[in-house]
Write a structure and sequence with these properties.
This protein is α/β, with parallel strands linked by helices. It has five helices and eight strands.
Length: about 150
């Protein structure tokens, strides 16, 4: 099976701060499945590192006050293209991210507070029938796959 995965969760240094967030459980998952790495923010043309961004009033704003909605949307569509190309039914994405967060995202105040909501890419993927899983649910997902 092909599974879309936030590249930062595979240890790629592509997050806004130039770091990765390797999830060791993904190494187990790739023994039996093909992982397709994506970084929607990079796919949308944003550099690494880049200022942190959060969703405010349905727009994605950088901490420096720049509207980066267009880049986030472009990256979401590129991610969806890859998901379709590789026939991915699942996406394992970085939680709380304005791109990849699913269920909970930062509230737009850059204070670390969370609200209910989805990142731009996670929302688009879910709208197209792709099951989105956050990294905290990874071990449950692996157990589910093993049956």
């Amino acid at each position: 099976m092909n599974i879309l995965v936030s590249a930062c969760l595979l240890g790629v240094n592509c997050r806004y701060n130039g770091e990765g967030k390797l999830q060791e459980d993904l190494l187990k998952l790739q023994e039996h499945h093909h992982l397709i790495p994506i970084c929607p923010e990079q796919l949308g043309g944003l550099p690494t590192p880049r200022p942190a961004s959060e969703i405010q009033n349905q727009r994605v704003m950088s901490k420096t006050g720049i509207d980066v909605t267009e880049q986030f949307e472009a990256g979401a569509f590129e991610s969806l293209k890859l998901a379709k190309l590789y026939q991915c039914s699942y996406a394992i994405l970085k939680e709380r991210s304005p791109s990849c967060g699913f269920g909970k995202i930062y509230d737009g105040s850059f204070s670390g507070s969370l609200i209910d909501g989805n990142g731009v890419t996670a929302n688009l993927l879910a709208e197209h029938g792709i099951t989105v899983i956050g990294e905290s649910k990874l071990s449950e997902f692996i157990k589910l796959l093993r049956g």
